[in-house]
Amino acid sequence: PDWPEGATIFGAMPEGNVWNNANLNYANTDWWDIYFGNSVNQKHDISLHGGTDKVSYYFSAGYMDDSSVLNYGTDYFKRMNTLGKISVAITDWWDFGYETRFAKKIREKPNMTNEGDYSFLYRHISRNYPITPLYDGFGNYMFESHIPSIEAGTDKQDDIDFWNNFRMELRPLKGWKINADFAYNVYNQEISEVEKYIYTYDVNNQPYENGISIPNNLTRKKYIKKYWTTNIYTSYDFDINEEHNFTILAGMQFERGDESWVQGYKTDLISEKVPSFPTATGDALLSEALAHNATESYFARLNYNYKEKYLFEANVRYDGSYVFRNGKRWGTFPSFSLGWNLYNESFWENIEPYVNTLKVRASWGQLGNQNISPYSDLELIPISADKLNWIFNYGSTRPVGYTSGPNLVNRNLTWETATTTNVGMDLSFLNNRLSATVDWFERRTIDMVGPSQAMPGVLGTSVPKENNSTLRTRGWEISLNWKHALENGLSYNLGISLYDYKSVVTKYFNPTGTLSTWYEGAEVGDIWGYTVNDLFRSQEDLDSYLSKVDMTHIAANWNTGDLKYEDINHDGKVNNGTNTIGNHGDLSVIGNDQPHYQYTINGGVSYKGFDFSMLWRGVAKKDMYFYRGSNIYWGFMGGWWESCLTPEHLDYFRDQPGSKYSGLYEGDANINTDAYWPRPYLNNTEEAKNKNHANTRYLQNAAYLRLQNVQLGYSFPRSITSKMHLEKLRIYFSGENLLTFSKLPSGIDPVAPVGFPTGGEFFGTAGSGRLTYGADRIYSIGLTVTY
Fold first, then answer.
1. What is the CATH number of the domain that holds 245?
2. What domain count does the chain have?
3. Quick check: is 65 in a domain?
4. In a 3-state reduction of DSSP, which class is residue 501?
5. How far apart are CA 584 and CA 515, in angstroms?
6. How far is CA 371 from the centre of its chain?
7. Which of 458-467, 477-486, 686-695 bottoms out in mean pLDDT, i.e. has the lowest?
8. First to last CA, the chain
9. CA proximity to 549, closest of 529, 532, 565
10. Is residue 604 a contact partner of residue 624, using CB atoms and an 8 Å limit?
11. Which residues of 641-651 are buried (b: 16+ CB within 10 A; e: fewer)?
């Protein structure tokens, strides 16, 4: 975003602050330019393939180095990967295959010590004052720049993922196949977190530990996962009079995983340059976790095809999972599908010139979801080794282990069942140049895990959950594609797709209908909020309204420039009633934070070796409300230290002449009663009434359109590549995230995550201060060489 000049933002402060005036000087720092720059990334891939009529092989390797656009600290991602395949025809009826995959990923980033995790970096930068200098008088980084925090330690994660896959196919008789495959995976993850002291320099240029520092420390974590899965199945293909074609398949699948997690922590590193447990002298903690998982499945399938006109398929699965107890462990899940190729009917000959193909299809099926925590049916006794320092006069030198009573468990938890119904059709026109696909679906998930019936408070523990909830999702998708090749060698294509879905809670145990959780009839993503059409522009307007409407539920004190909450149920007061669906006072559904009417547009052109392609993605409807913690959105926060002002935020309400800052907003020039933003208070309590309640005035339109990828390439003609002993040579330029059209305030990426809801009292509200910086604009040049 654009930031105001340092003197402007300082002079625009609605309240004076001697500490700010004395400490922050009059710099004019562009913090985004300080923190972020350009980076050069690289990605290389190579592949090799070949073979004979009996043996074929394939090998590929890749390397990627993604450096950060952050100018300070250590921040990068690297990946190395290989893939090898070999297929051998041992006999005419026996094939064998082997595949191995290896990937190593390294991610290192600043841990920000205890200034919040890495996701808070964007927030930290946004609240820096432009009038704060980068360096002090001795050339040291100012602590307020947060650069000392960025460079005070890193989190490094090293992942190794290794797969081995074996497969075999036997064909003992015509049409009969026996297949078996086995896969084994070892996943290794090592994490090292080093937090160093943060130093600030005094007036004599002497370093001292900043108050935000914690004891320097080292954390090491090691996670190992060993997983294997095997499939054994057999199929038989046969036909009757070459018209009725059948395929029968049956098989089984087994999988098992073993996981272990060990974590060590120790404080007071003797040397921060060589962080290790032996060179740390402080407190030490050690923890460990073990997990085992397994599933077992049996499945069968029947396919029927009559002259490529009528298609039928039936499936059934019998799945068992370790997360459920005996008697609830197994579930049966069938599915069916039908298809009708009308264009293969004899009567289609007269229609074919206009509609080349038409296929109508429908399907119905069930799948199981094991959406519960393992061992939920066991009464587990937690063990703790805390020091019980809360006991009066106990002291902190005698660690005492203790246990607490187990929670109640529900031994009847079982599979959630998702039933999906789909109908659709595929069409093509104009000699198959224009094609279209239309789909409609409904997914109904029953036996979802939800809350049990409430128990008296004297129970003393939480009530276990039950399979008692239902969620229904309905959606549709339409896609159109056009492709055409002209006689002069020019070919082009254009595709458009549009889809949407809506999820509604149809069953949920919420007898009071409270809005703070799901309730029957709730649409997922609904934002409940108040209706606010304006601010209080004058004292007369404020006094008149308060004489008729009681707003003490929102706040006790009101001033001009505050939000004017509407009494939409006309009961003489503004409140949320009992915050239930039956009595929600002046609340109503003002928006929905789920993406609706999502669409993609893709296109391409090729001519005499040149090729061009593009991909656009967008969302036509989405709402978002940002709470008080979103400083990048609101600008003014609970204090100057938390505020983040752009020129747009200077359009805040003020109705008093200015006299404090000579020449800047002086006299009546300071008055702005037609402002967009409410009166700033720089006080968390007072700010809450204007920012913490979702409302229609500040509900944001989060729809967007983004040019996600565009590529321009040239493939050299065969007359040139043959002289270079090359099969193909292509050079290309690619750009990602080059354009974004959005109505959100500058600096907020409509696609970037916004963190967790904070401060909201109503179900379905959205937004948080944990904004991360958005997608990078990436330019790349590539070369493809085929021998």
1. 2.40.170.20
2. 1
3. yes
4. strand
5. 8
6. 19
7. 458-467
8. 47
9. 565
10. no
11. ebbbbbebbbe
Task: Please say whether the beta carbons of 576 and 557 come within 8 A.
Answer: no
pLDDT one-digit tens code per residue, 39-87: 889 999 999 999 999 999 999 999 999 988 889 889 999 999 999 999 9
d(CA 487, CA 243): 39
The single residue listed with the structure tokens 């360096």 is: 135
Q: How many CA atoms lie within 13 A of 349 on its CB side?
A: 2
Beta bridge partners of 292: 258
Q: Burial code of 374-413, b = ≥16 C-beta within 10 A, e = fewer? A: eebbeeeeeeeeeeeeeeeeeeeeeeeeeeeeeeebbeeb
Residues with Cβ within 8 Å of 99's Cβ and at least 6 positions away in sequence, in order, are 83, 84, 85, 86, 163, 164, 165, 167
In one letter, which amino acid is 456? P
- Residue-wise pLDDT for 408-450, tens only, equals 888 899 999 999 999 999 999 999 999 999 999 999 999 999 9
Is residue 231 one of the residues assigned to a domain? yes
Q: State the Cα angle at 160 between 155 and 163, rounded to 5°.
A: 155
φ and ψ at residue 543, rounded to 5 degrees: -60, -40
Q: Tell me, yes or no, whether 670 lies in a domain.
A: no
Bin 733: left if φ > 0, else alpha if -120 < ψ < 50, else beta: beta
pTM over 0.85: yes
CB 495 within 8 A of CB 557: no
Identify the residue with better confidence: 371 or 269.
269
Report how far residue 224's alpha carbon sits from residue 190's, in angstroms, rounded to the nearest whole number.
9
Can you give the residue range of the structural domain that contains 254? 40-113+156-293
CA distance 84 to 150: 40
User: Is residue 251 in a domain?
Assistant: yes
Distance of alpha carbon 316 from alpha carbon 336, whole angstroms: 9
- The alpha-carbon radius of gyration of the chain (Å, integer) is 32
Distance from C-alpha of 505 to C-alpha of 468, rounded to nearest angstrom: 12
Count of other CB atoms within 10 angstroms of residue 469: 22
- CA–CA separation, 243 and 308 (whole Å): 9
From the number of C-beta atoms within 10 Å of its C-beta (0-12, 13-18, 19+), residue 22 rates as exposed
668 phi, psi to nearest 5 deg: -65, -15
The answer to whether 299 and 315 are in contact (CB under 8 A) is yes
Cβ contacts of 347 within 8 Å, gap of 6 or more: none
How far apart (Å, rounded) are the C-alpha atoms in residues 144 and 147? 8
Q: To which residue do tokens 């393939």 refer?
A: 49
- Sheet strands (E) in 342-450: 355-369, 383-384, 402-403, 416-429, 434-450
